[in-house]
Design brief:
Elements (H helix, E strand, L loop, with lengths): L1 E4 L9 E7 L6 E2 L4 E6 L4 E5 L4 E4 L7 E4 L3 E6 L21 E2 L33 H9 L18 H14 L29 H16 L2 E9 L1 H13 L7 H15 L6 E3 L2 E3 L6 E7 L2 E7 L7 H16 L13 E5 L18 E14 L5 E14 L5 H16 L6
Parallel strand pairs: 13-15, 15-16
Antiparallel strand pairs: 1-8, 2-4, 2-7, 3-6, 4-5, 6-8, 7-9, 10-17, 11-12, 13-14, 16-17
Helix pairs in contact: 1-2, 5-6, 5-7
């Protein structure tokens, strides 16, 4: 008998959602065959059968949130039976899983403590406060004492939604300054008209909506744009691809490598803001935005400072393919210290991007275009040019620092032997 558990897919993961069962009670499964889908805070992944046998004792319903290592079901061999606590009750829920609540069923957010006599907090009762790493991080960034929050996760654990609800409740409770003029009421949502189609967001798009909204509202963005001559970089790419046709170097690979070189010279751009301090990471970890059918993922190339251009190209291809196949692990989507978002392949000349925390900057890359350039002697020549725009966190990066970084990036791409 083999027990199927909620796997721990990353150091920060403490719970996961059983999205759906791909196999049902009593089905015969083969080793390596997907049997269920689970969702973490970052992605939805499949659980594969570790052995062949019969799937029995499914004990967690679809949509339930359970801690890691919670038994989900069993795979039995011929002659084996379920553990005693589930004998004769195969398929009946026995887990203490916390169901996913619809918006109307969500617990009322805990308001900030009032001036009246408060109930004793867990800390005052001498209890250990259970909270997920993400909840602790958000609480720390907003100066919130976790003892003030009532958790709704398994065993009363404080999870991300509890902290966000507390923040919203605190904002609502805070007295608003008297407006100089009467505020204009926000327009009510337009009613859904006959013939309109409503589509529910999948989990990835829900996470993207939440994270981008939070990032745009809490990070002071500013933007810097520079134009780069790509003639020499494209020539180098062509030479490398002619030498080794089995491993193609893309324009994006050149940009990632050039960013790594520039980040080594300007390490503050690689830092992040946390608790009123600058935190310098253990390396240069560059995230690559990848468009997939379900939405947008960021695959992270770790320790780019020690990798060659070909190594970056090889790892990028692997990560991008895993992203498209839905096989990225949580560790391959976390810890980015800088991000590259490239829409050049779609003909987009220039755009701005929302910073992807914990990074303090993201580089939006436009298309490489052949344009007429006027030389100093007045002659006009066609050149391959590309515009990039960097979104910067002003808590970390000043305008001059961001400009110097882009000047170095321009220098590296225009003299690409600096990457070799």
């Amino acid at each position: 008998m083999h027990t199927i558990i909620m796997p721990k897919m990353g150091d920060a993961m403490e719970e996961g959602t059983l999205v759906r069962w791909l196999k049902q009670e009593g089905d015969t499964v083969a080793e390596g065959e997907p049997i269920a889908e689970i969702a973490t805070d970052k992605a939805t992944v499949e659980i594969e059968a570790p052995v062949s046998g019969v799937l029995r004792g499914i004990s967690v319903a679809e949509g339930a949130v359970v801690p890691v290592n919670t038994p989900l079901a069993y795979i039995l061999q011929a002659g084996e039976s379920l553990p005693s606590q589930t004998d004769g009750k195969a398929g009946a829920p026995t887990s203490t899983a916390t169901p996913v609540l619809a918006p109307a069923e969500m617990p009322t957010p805990v308001a900030a403590p009032s001036a009246t006599t408060p109930a004793p907090t867990p800390a005052e009762r001498g209890e250990r406060i259970l909270a997920s790493p993400l909840a602790r991080k958000i609480a720390s960034e907003h100066g919130i004492d976790l003892a003030q929050i009532q958790g709704t996760g398994p065993k009363g654990r404080i999870v991300e939604r509890d902290v966000l609800a507390f923040i919203e409740a605190r904002k609502a409770a805070a007295p608003a300054p008297a407006p100089a003029v009467a505020p204009v009421a926000a327009p009510a949502p337009a009613p859904i008209a006959a013939g309109e189609r409503v589509e529910s967001l999948n989990r990835l798009r829900q996470i993207t909506a939440q994270r981008t909204t939070e990032a745009y509202q809490t990070i002071p963005h500013f933007y810097l744009t520079i134009e780069i001559d790509m003639e020499n970089a494209l020539a180098l790419r062509q030479q490398l691809n002619q030498i080794n046709e089995s491993l193609r170097v893309s324009v994006n690979d050149l940009i990632v490598k050039a960013c790594a070189v520039a980040l080594e010279q300007h390490p503050v751009v690689n830092a992040r803001y946390q608790d009123g301090q600058l935190v310098h990471p253990d390396g240069i970890h560059i995230g690559i935005a990848v468009a997939v059918e379900q939405g947008l993922l960021v695959a992270v190339l770790k320790h780019c400072e020690g990798k060659s251009l070909r190594r970056i190209a090889q790892e990028s291809q692997t990560l991008i393919q895993k992203a498209r196949d839905g096989k990225l692990l949580p560790d391959e989507m976390t810890g980015n210290t800088f991000t590259v978002s490239n829409l050049g392949m779609f003909g987009i000349e220039q755009f701005t991007a929302i910073i992807n925390p914990p990074a303090s900057a993201i580089l939006a890359v436009g298309a490489t275009r052949r344009v007429p350039i006027v030389n100093d002697d007045g002659s006009i020549v066609p050149r391959q040019r590309m515009k990039v725009t960097m979104s910067c966190d002003h808590r970390v990066i000043d305008g001059a620092v961001g400009a110097q970084f882009l000047q170095t990036l321009k220098q590296v791409l225009e003299s690409p032997m600096l990457m070799v």
